[in-house]
Amino acid sequence: MNSTLQFQLRITVSPELADALRTDASYAAHPALRDILHAHHATLKCQFDAFADYVSEAERLGTENFPLYQWTRDTIENPEKKAKYLRSFTIYVNGDAVYGRDITDAMETQLLNLVDANGISRVSRFDTNPANNPQPPAR
């Protein structure tokens, strides 16, 4: 099963860097981060923005088809959680939210070198093994 696992990287950044990254998709506010992302054909998506997009889509198409709608809406409306997720960014590689071990290992090593440099406070790694991930909340 390990060979079929895929991974996702996320970074947590300062509020100031988060604002810059959310408003400028060229990532000019952090040239070293920009270079790593470009080298791996990667982009960032703010977790708060992803949650807000999910809520908007659910409200547009009908919330009954979106099992995490209420949890997600409650999350983005909670000021403490909003502040947390505004600082969290998922890394997409070639448009994909999960990717193989080789790209994950290479990018993670490079990103870890940026921690504490110009506002990056953490790099987190997740995998697709259901045993390692929380299950959706009950309705």
Q: Which descriptors would you attach to this protein?
A:
4-stranded antiparallel β-sheet, alpha+beta, 6 helices, Alpha-Beta Plaits, 4 strands, 139 residues
Rg over alpha carbons: 16 Å
What's the quaternary structure here?
single chain
Q: Shape from CA axes?
A: globular
Q: Could you tell me how far the N terminus lies from the C terminus, measured between alpha carbons in angstroms?
A: 30 Å
Tally the helices: what do you get? 6
Helix-strand makeup class: alpha+beta
CATH topology tier name: Alpha-Beta Plaits
- What's the architecture, going by CATH? 2-Layer Sandwich
Q: How much beta, percentage-wise?
A: 15-25%
- Number of DSSP strand runs: 4
Poorly predicted regions are none
Per CATH, the class reads Alpha Beta
Q: Could you estimate the helical fraction of the residues in percent?
A: 40-55%
Spatial order of strands in the largest sheet: 2-3-1-4
Described by strand count, sense and barrel closure, the largest sheet is: 4 strands, antiparallel
Order of helices and strands: EHHEHHHEHE
Write down the domain tally: 1
What is the mean pLDDT? Answer: 92
Could you explain the architecture of this structure?
- This protein is an alpha+beta fold and 139 residues long.
- It has helices at residues 15-23, 31-39, 47-61, 69-77, 79-86, 101-112; strands at residues 7-13, 42-46, 88-93, 120-127.
- The protein has a single domain (2-129), classed as 2-Layer Sandwich (Alpha-Beta Plaits).
- The chain has a four-stranded antiparallel beta sheet with strand order 2-3-1-4.
- Helix 3 packs across helix 4.
- The model has no long low-confidence stretch (mean pLDDT 92).
